[in-house]
Amino acid sequence: MFYAKEVKRLEEQLQGAQVIDEVEVRTQGIELGCRVVLEDVARRSTEMVELVNPEEADVELGKISTQSPVGKALLGLGEGAEVQVQTPAGRISYRVVGIEKRKGR
Question: What is the pLDDT of residues 13-38, one digit of tens each?
């Protein structure tokens, strides 16, 4: 049954889950739970994204997965860092303008 499979999948995910205390999220480097202000170097435009688990990703809301090409490329970077990312839309160069902790849930 579909529901049994979905419940089993969710149980497996929860077994490996860790609760991350907001206080523990550092702003020196980008990691899960951070909000990041990015500048598209070519377009000279900025956007804010939040790095989340794949299950929480919602591009329309600016929530990108840590497993996406952009999310993977940002992990561990600090303010001022530049990175080039190969996306389905092509290669994009980003500059990290700011990093913030995720505020409340």
Answer: 777 766 666 555 554 689 999 999 99
Beta bridge partners of 47: 38
Q: Are 93 and 41 a contacting pair, CB within 8 Å?
A: yes
Q: How many CB atoms lie within 10 A of CB 71?
A: 22
- Which residue is listed with tokens 């688990």? 53
Where are the strands (E) in 1-105, listed by range? 34-40, 45-52, 63-65, 82-87, 90-101
Residue 25 vs residue 9, higher pLDDT? 9
Q: d(Cα 75, Cα 36) in Å, to the nearest integer?
A: 11
Please list, in sequence order, all residues whose beta carbon lies within 8 angstroms of the beta carbon of residue 105, skipping any fewer than 6 positions away: none
Domains of the chain, CATH where assigned: 27-101 (3.10.50.30)
pTM above 0.90, yes or no: no
Does the pLDDT at position 1 exceed 70? no
